[in-house]
Amino acid sequence: MNSLQAWRALPAAQQPEWPDAGAVQAAAAQLRTFPPLVFAGECDSLKARLADVAAGRAFFLQGGDCAETFNGVGADALRNKLRTILQMSVILTYAGSMPVVKVGRIAGQYAKPRSKPTEVRDGVELPAYRGDAVNGFPFTPEDRTPDPDRLVRMYHSSAATLNLARAFVVGGEADLRQVHAWNTDFVRDSPVGERYDRMARDIDRAISFMHACGADPAEFHSVDFYASHEALLLDYEEALTRIDSRTGLPYDTSGHFLWIGERTRQLDGAHLEFARHIRNPVGVKLGPTTTPQDALTLIERLDPDREPGRLTFITRMGAGRIRDALPELVEKVTASGASVAWVCDPMHGNTFEAPNGYKTRRFDDVLDEVEGFFEVHRALGTVPGGLHVELTGDEVTECVGGGHALAEADLVHRYETVCDPRLNRAQSLELAFLVAEMLHRP
Ligand code: PEP
Ligand code: CO
Questions:
Q1: Which residue of 63, 143, 208, 227 is most buried, as measured by CB atoms within 10 A?
Q2: pLDDT at residue 442 above 90?
């Protein structure tokens, strides 16, 4: 057994109960014959940019669906999502006077950890939906039975999505003037647009000034964009791991950036063991029960050489916990001399069930957690490195609040997520303007 398979000897949380182990092996064997989705050199470039994030020279923005779906591979949804991320990034770049490192929860985010292995409806118990990479969302025995052929579909869906994303970000979609024009439209049409008008005008003047000076660098017409997902299904991730011919080192070529989730970050577990051996930049989600010793052990295991940009901690404490739970972690990690990128996920600690049964989040809680994140880092003199958000570019009704004051009764209109509730386009742009104010503040 080589080191890339060492995880197999350890307990792996949240793996599906595949009915036929042979079929999983067959799918993995097929995946091994496919070309890589991303290249090692791209992963290294992202790692270098994450080193900038850790040092406060760049801001990280990671966003996309909680769970992508095979049917959601359509061009419109992807374009709207990418536009939204690019629009947010222009606002944040201006406010922080820093480059923004743009990473999608895109082209691979097809597998979900679940709090319960089964779901019961009207007395019928079936396996829980674990993402399109594992089983189908409809509540039927056929759909819910894990099917390893889906691992192969995951690869093809990721490839199609990534292909389109790569084309979008070098085409007109990423043109700075165009992206800014969309932001201006948003500010004009938003019921609370007045609040953001000043910054939008400032950006307008900055762009006009540069053009008047004759500045029109290639960077204004295309952007770097990276793909990421939770490295949950280790059979898939192992099968996509390849040895880089330049360096002889292993990279998980399923995505540029992989993270380990809150439910699979056990110190003696398989996910950590797998992530140790790949050379991609990696993240770990840290919830409110994380102890400073957990964080230090994660650093020791995942980044023993203290490689700049290698490790990102994505904290997801909840608005009510962030101000108590984060300081000690940041203090102890900083005191250890390690340098990690600290990123705020203001979504996963703020989920609740509305009385009408919809799983939702309040825009104000999301914003409050980000505020708390900035407060803690400002007080400690450390770097609030970025944001990790669940969002879509469509006008869905999944999170309550925001400028349109979406109410719980509105959730029924366009609740389309198959997993967690996402910020819609307007809520995402508003969040960017409000975080921009935080970045701008001395
Ligand atoms: C997620 O990012 O969708 C997720 C499941 O997060 P966490 O691991 O932080 O709960
Ligand atoms: Co989620």
A1: 63
A2: no
